[in-house]
Every structure is written in structure tokens, then in C-alpha cells.
Amino acid sequence: MRVGSGRSPRDLGTSDLESRVLAAVGDAVVVMDLEGRVVGWEGAAERLLGHRAAEVLGKPATMVFPPELIPGQEHLTSVGGAERVDLVLPMVDDRIAAVSLVPLRNAAGEVVGTTATVKPVGAWLDPAEASGPPRRRWHRTLGGIVHDLVELAGRDLAAMDSSEQLARVLVRQARRLLPAAECMLSMVSSERPEQFTILAASGPWAERQVGQEWSQEGTLAGRALRERRAVESVRMQELSSRRETLAIGDIKTARLLPVFSPRPLPDGRVTLGVLGFYRTTEAFFTPYERRLMDELVRLVSVSLQRTELRKSTAETVARLQTGVDVAVDLASSLEPDDVIRRLIRRAVSAVAADRASLFLVEEDEVVVVDSYDSAGQQDRVGRRFGLSAMVSDGEPVLELATREGRPRISGPYRLEGTDGQQDGQEEEGQADGREDGQDGAVSGSRHTLTLPLVLAGSTTGVLVVSRRRDHRFTREDALTLQLVGSVAGLMLRNARLFAEAREASRLRSDFLNMAAHELRTPLTVINGYLSMLNDGSLGQPPARWRDPVSLLATKAAELGRLVDDLLLTSRLESGGLPARADQLDLRLLTEAAAQRARPRLDLVGGQLEIALPADPVWVSADPEQLTRILDNLVNNAITYRRIAQPAWVRIEALVDGQMALVAVEDRGRGVPPEMQERIFERFVRAEETSDRTSGTGLGLYISRQLAERHGGRVELERSSPGEGSRFVLKLPLASRP
């Protein structure tokens, strides 16, 4: 049909005879100009398409042909440069029609519009009604692909759990659908949504693109993702920014189908990628081919969603395992330097970094606490610089991370306002070395992940990890490092508190040691003069002095025991108390302790019972230290008797399995439940007795410490206020000498 120009079929050159012929056939003919407006409405158009001529003439053709049906507006106006486009269109009576778009040319051969011929083809293309041979063939084809995927999963489950392996399987199956077309499957990551990476391909040209990253901007694949619909064109090299790449394979036609997850993934993604079919001929795909592609992309979407979900689950499990491993590793030491060293190396390992530095935040400055570099270019410990000095991508990354309390992913960084401006990006070929004057903190880093260490709402430090290779940190890396940082912040605080407590304990021990030594000298003088008064060396004292001198001697003895306790405590904490290991019969030591207690019991009107086994009970111990433990337990039983009640003490030695035991039982005041473990701490005594009975609160502490030095323990086996207590010394049995 040769046409001229104008606004009607007659003006375009259609004769009366041609009009009568068109009206007589059962097909609908629609003519469109280059602006996409309907200028011809012939044949069975009104009956098949449900519009009168007056309703559509001069109107946009999209009124008749929906945008989602036509591959693009250019196909309505010029058929996209092809000689023919075949489509499928639903009609008003729910039947299916085949639509053929053919360019309309004038006498000079110029395209001036498009003719669309609409032909009813029956129900075989209708997914709800079809049952004819083409549908059975479509079922067999897709069914065979599903069968192969299931069979592969049975043979190699790992192939279905890796996006890369699954992509290779899917594109091979896609090539089976359309052997004459090449196929590529690309994916979009959550970290770089503006790009997609080609994971797998089938076909000589397509396979050379695997591993490349294409920008969405300027590509028809990007358009398919943005518009969330299939995009098809026979002018690929004209319309795509990748024209040079397409020209290498002489690619002219392509159909790009977006791949979406039916439900959002844990990282928030819905867009997964693009499934593309490419060929070298300028011919659109047939309706049957498009139907196969559409059904296949649904299978691809579900398969990739499953794989990405499994990948996300595996990454979550790996992160949690990393957190557990970090917690176990850091908890193995309370030395701050050791914890910091372990933290930095764990951080490097957890995110496959090349270096890491830990900074302590002090107002508007940071101080380098420690660093690690796989190439040995460590930062200078103790170095200070401003929070805003570290700049990456034009932003002060340390300051922003500290202020926002969340990790930041950035590129190479530099230190501004320090001794020279050091760029974190070295010249090509020097990423593994160190330029003259370049600082180790920024040397060669191409990608950086900055993590603030936040505890109780306060940022105390910043951990910076970096990579020299061109491999950007991902959201998963940030989540993993954040988990490491959460554990590390707590462990660092614990280590710091432990160091402070240890320093306080050292200072207290030093004070006790000094105080005890300073007290011992005047106490020795006092005891000396009291002894001289008692033995008459200074002359016979008056009778009225006898009681005061006796009281002074008693108090001096108490003060002497206090000094001894203080000195012994200091030596226990400093590790300066030597111990012998003699073979001893515990029965003899127990009996000796009972004999030493008898005079005091007689003085207060008490009763002592002793129970010893017939056979020796051998232990390996220092006799002096073991004697001190037994004396402390027996003296406590006498001291903490009930007011106005005689003391009752029972001492028993026995063997229990591989342990030798000495139990000291009384019917005294007992220990309140809330104090039954605390009484073994330094300077702690039961509250209800602390005001009535003299003592330092060191006896049980010293006894337990001495027992533990011998591999044993002193325990409060039972106690009830007002009914008494039972303390037990446990020591490992020794072989007979």
C-alpha cells in the first residue's frame, strides 16, 4: 500500500475500492501516523476492538493498544525499524487476536506511519482456555526445564544455593527455549543498585560479558527495571549506551525482562536483575517466544529469590557465629592491650580487610590506640588528630560516623590538617608499597569501612578497616563488623574496668603493706615495755597497775594479729607468700588446733567435741598455713557464739572420696543468707555482728585464699541465723609418705 500524507485513509491514498475490500474482510485494520495517533479505522475494527471510528480517530493509539502490550512507543509509530512486529491482543469478547504491525511508506519509501492488522486466532493463546498443540508444546518445553532443575537439585544441592551457579543453570535452560538467541542473566546488589553484574550467559558474544558491570543508566535493561516491564527493540545499538559492546556481537534485537522477588528480601531488595535475550537479526520475537520468556522469567524470579534468601540466612548465621567467636576470643583475656590486639585482628579477618586501626575518641580528637596492617605499615600508636581530619568522598567520615553512631562505607581517605596531606589512594602500581612520607594510616587504602564503638549511647572509640584491592565493602560487611564492634565495645569496657580495679587493688595492697610495716615498729616497742613491766625489769609495779597492764597486753596482742592479717593479705595478693609442701597427717593438725582452743573455751564456759578417724589422713600442705586456716575456723566458732550462751564447737576430720575434710561446727549466731558468700571477701563481716565483736573481716578471706593455694577450698556448708554454722576445709588427699 503506497500512501502520501494527510489525516485520513483517503488522504493517505486509500481508494474507495480498497475501503470496500477492507470492510468486507473479517480483520481489523488500524492506521497510525508518526505521532502515534489513529488516522485509519477500517475493516472489522469496530466489532473486534470495541470502539467506533469517531471515538478513536485523531486519538493516541495507546487508547487501543495498551502500553504494556506494545514493546515501545517507537513500535507504534515506525515499527522500531523492523519490517514487521507480531503481538497478541485481548479483544472485547475475551478472545485473543494476533496483531501484525507493518511500516507504512510513501512513494519515496519513507516511513510515514504504521498499519496494524488485527486477526482473531481463537483461544489457543489464552492461558485460561487454551488446550491446542501450541500450548501443549509450551507445557512440554517449560516442564522439561523444571524437571531438569529438580534433577540437578537432587544431584547437587549446592548448585541451587549459589546465585552464580544457579544463574549458569538457568541461562543454559533459557538457551534451550530459544536456540537462535543468546541469553544473559544479570543481578542487582543492594550495595550498588545503580549497576548490575552479569552473572551468567549462554552464547558466544554473551559469554564474553560474564563478570562485567553495566550501568542501568542509558541501557534498555535499566529501562526495563525502572518501568518494571519487558522492553523489546530491534534498534539496540541505537538506543543503548552499550552500543560498542553490542556492535562487537552484531546484536540488533533484544528483549529484556526484569526479574523481581515476589516478596522483599531481608536487605529490602525487590529488584533482582534482568533476563535478556539477544539476536543478530532485525526481527521481533513472536508471541509464542514472548510467552515462553514470560513464563521462564517467573521461574527465574522464584528460583533466585529462594537462593538469595538462603544466602541471606547463611550470611546471618555466619555473622552470628563471628559474633560468638569474637566474644569467646575477647573474653579469654582481661588485659586491655591483649583485648585490643585480638579485636583488631578479628575485625580484619571478619571482613577480609587488609588493615585496621582503633581510635579512642577524646572530645573533638581521636588517638591511635593500636593498628594492624597485612603489609606491615602500621599506624603510630598515640598519634592524635582531629575528628574532622579524616576525609573520604569529600566528607569527614570519622566525625560523621561518631555523630550518627552507625557504620559508614566510603572510598579512599586522606588526613587533612596534619603533617602534610596524605592521600589514601596511592599511584598505580604502588598499592603494596609505601611512598616517601606517606602515613601508614592511609597508605594505599581504596575502600574503607568506619565503625563507631557505641556503648550505653556514647561513642568511646572508632574502628576503621580498609582494603587496598578494588573490592568495595558491602552492607553485609558493615553488619558483620557492627556485630564485632558491639561485642568489642563491651569487652573493651570490661578490660578497662578490670585494669582500673587491678590498679586500685595494687594501690590498696601497697597501702596495707606499708601501714602494717609502719604499725609493726611501734607495736614491737609497746610489747617490749609491757613485757618489762610484767617481769619486773623496770621495778615492781604498783598493784593498781596489774589490770591496766594486762588489758594493754591483750589489746597489743589483738593489734599484733591485725598487723599479721594485713601483712599476710598483702603478700597473698602480691604473690609473695612462699609455701612448703610437706606430707602431713591432718588428724594431728586438727587435734593440735582443738588443744589450742581449749583454754579460750574454758574461759567462756564452752564445750568442745572432736571426732577423728582411726587411720591417718595424709595431705600435702604447708603446716604453718594449714594451722592458720584451722585456728581461724575454730576461733570464729568461739567468737560468734550466741550472746549469754555457752559456746559449743565440734571439730571433725574425715575422708570423702579423694578429698580430706575438716568440719568445724558451732551453735552460734549463724550467717544471714545474703551474707553467706560475701563473708569470704576482704573486710566483710556479717552485718548483725560487726558492731559487737572485734575483728578485721580478713580471717575467712585469708583462709579461703590459703586453701586454694593448696588446691582446696573453704566453704560454708550450712548456716541458719540463731542456730549455728558448719564450715568445711577441703584438701586433696595425698599418697602415704
In whole angstroms, the N-to-C terminal distance is 123 Å
Query: Sheet with the most strands?
Result: 6 strands, mixed
Instruction: Name the CATH class of the largest domain.
Output: Alpha Beta
Range of helix content: 25-40%
The Cα radius of gyration reads 46 Å
Count of structural domains: 5
Q: What is the tally of beta strands?
A: 29
Q: What is the level-2 CATH architecture name of the largest domain?
A: 2-Layer Sandwich
Q: By helix and strand content, what is the structural category?
A: alpha+beta
- Give unreliable regions as ranges: 1-14, 123-139, 419-442
Instruction: Fill in the CATH topology of the largest domain.
Output: Beta-Lactamase
Quote the beta fraction: 15-25%
| Mean of pLDDT | 77
The CATH homologous superfamily name of the largest domain equals GAF domain
Number of helices: 18
What would the principal axes of the Cα set say about the shape? Answer: elongated
Structure in words:
This protein is an alpha+beta fold and 737 residues long. The chain contains 18 helices and 29 strands. Residues 1-14, 123-139 and 419-442 have low confidence and may be disordered. It folds into 5 domains: 2-122, PAS domain (Beta-Lactamase, 2-Layer Sandwich), CATH 3.30.450; 133-314, Beta-Lactamase, CATH 3.30.450.40; 331-501, 2-Layer Sandwich (Beta-Lactamase); 518-574; 582-732, Heat Shock Protein 90. The strands form 6 sheets. Strands 1, 2, 3, 4, 5 and 6 form a 6-stranded mixed beta sheet that branches.
